[in-house]
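hey so i finaly got around to running the thing on CoA-binding protein from Streptomyces mesophilus. pasting the sequence first so u can double check i didnt mess up the copy paste, my clipboard has been acting weird all day
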Amino acid sequence: MAEDRALTVRALLDAVRAEGRSTLTAPEGKVIADAYGIAVPGEELARDVDEAVAAAARFDGPVVLKIVSPDILHKTDAGGVIVGVEGATDVKAAFYKIIENAKAYNSEAKIDGIQVQQMLPPGQEVIVGAVTDPTFGKVVAFGLGGVLVEVLKDITFRLAPVSPDEAQSMLDSIKAAEILRGVRGAPPVDRWAVAEQIRRVSELVTDFPEIVEVDLNPVIATPEGAMAADIRVILTDELPKERRKYGREEILRSMKRLMQPNSVAVIGASNEQGKIGNSVMRNLIDGGFGGEIHPVNPKADDILGRKAYKSVTDVPGEVDVAVFAIPAKFVASALEEVGRKGIPNAVLIPSGFAETGEHALQDEIVEIAERHGVRLLGPNIYGYYSTWHDLCATFCTPYDVKGGVALTSQSGGIGMAILGFARSTKTGVSAIVGLGNKSDLDEDDLLTWFGEDPNTDCIAMHLEDLKDGRAFVEAARATVPKKPVVVLKAGRTAAGAKAAGSHTGALAGDDAVYEDILKQAGVIRAPGLNDMLEYARALPIMPTPQGDNVVIITGAGGSGVLLSDAVTDNGLELMEIPEDLDAAFRKFIPPFGAAGNPVDITGGEPPSTYEATIRLGLEDPRIHSLVLGYWHTIVTPPMVFAELTAKVVAEFKERGIEKPVVASLAGDVEVEEACQYLFEHGVVAYPYTTEKPVAVLGAKYRWARAAGLLGGGR
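ok and heres what it spat out for the 3d tokens, dont ask me to read them lol
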């Protein structure tokens, strides 16, 4: 059966391409739909008005007439669709009107005839489609359909092919999901039938790479089924170039030698201060790197007290990493020597490659590296840090605070922002890696390594694009169950979205696809740079929540309101406080305070009230997370609040009770020191904001669900 349908579609596509066409006509689209079991109404092609009248008579009830022309893609725009036609007289009038409209729309259009189609019963219009995304390849789409699809843009995407469960999940991922379940007395649609349309389209585009877009718009969904009123198929001759693939073990083997090298050569090492080669050497030496450091410079005998070599081929023994600090025009010849030496990794700091239009030069070094089996980091990067190995292979400022956060950036400027943030917040890192042009090594290689690295607890990545979106998704899915992956995707606006030939293509702006696919992979997407850095800093120190019930304890009513808003905005649930718990909280708060949720203890209360209510929140197993709102008063100074909170949290941790606790501190400048103290003692706390602590808590919940540690996974 599958083989027969493939032969049918292959023969049709070959015939269309032989005619030099890239768009299928409606009758050709029906052949494909029938082959793949995509439900469409009965229809016939009428080449003249008499055939149209005869075809309409064979259908029971009114029909729809549509222009059939390979030169008219959007039939409605051309006035090429008339619905509800019944009776010979009306069929004739509609036939001539459509022909007239089509010629007025495009006088040169080749007209094959008029499609006479059985009219579908009323129902909910949805769209099912597929596009070929430059990053992720074949992507299937679903959303509200009809003529308003481009206005409402209520659409969701998944990697193709999709499983039945993934197809069903798409129905719940649009904003108007409730409509499909039935509202205001309307019955729900046949969800299985709609999901099957999605699944079958995803199979079709997976089987035939030359199908660049498919549009079923509208699909009429009813309680009895789902049928595509129109199918549009677009082909391409430009298939993407195959990227060289590396297996997981290959990646881990080369990354181990990159991140944990025993020997590093610096090509372009220099004694002259201010030179990149001098800065890299100094950082390696001053950073305490315990392996061998080999300067390479044909004009020097000694650099910074170490023997210099004329060529990297002269360096004795094995070398794990070659760091390039030479102009771009000399990189290719030096890379040949690195390849002959058998060095597995080249770190290319120089700029002057694809980012300046020198694509041929970048292609040349990639070819050399692939020929010799050398993995390339860069070019156009600041270098990299591997703190647990005391490795600082960069010309930027050194950093040696060890911790569990791995940070990567495609931009040097963002890399330095990462460094400054880490230093100012005392964030310990396992690595900071620049990716630059990503001529070879990219995010999926790093994800594969950091996912297995015992020194890394959280991975945060700034990226402007992905070379291979599917490889990234695969690496993310393998990593997310073990540790959070946070991504800041730059370029969120629609300005860069390319024009496309169908409704679905027009909606497939880069960011819309990225948003859904990253969510599908379980990645936490940060809205901005500071958010990414704060998520990375905070997530590792927070315990994983064991349930959805969030309770706010606040000393200020205003903060409580804003914290409640933030909880809702971040997709969290304020716990409905049961009567016994409400009574327990009331024992500790004044009569003019307020129990419920938020628990408002009021601002004039002493430290004992904060302590008692926090203890109760940690003690009760029905409460899963605490959000604390502190208000600076002389009665309970900031550091008193911070110390008592940290003490209580630590005490419960020793008893085996761990819950996420985040805090918002409002007050004078002393709250800044209190927040830093809380952070250092495992409580995520921020001054002057009610949004940020709850956003971090929301990110922790999203990761816990994606990792399968909490209900409602990806």
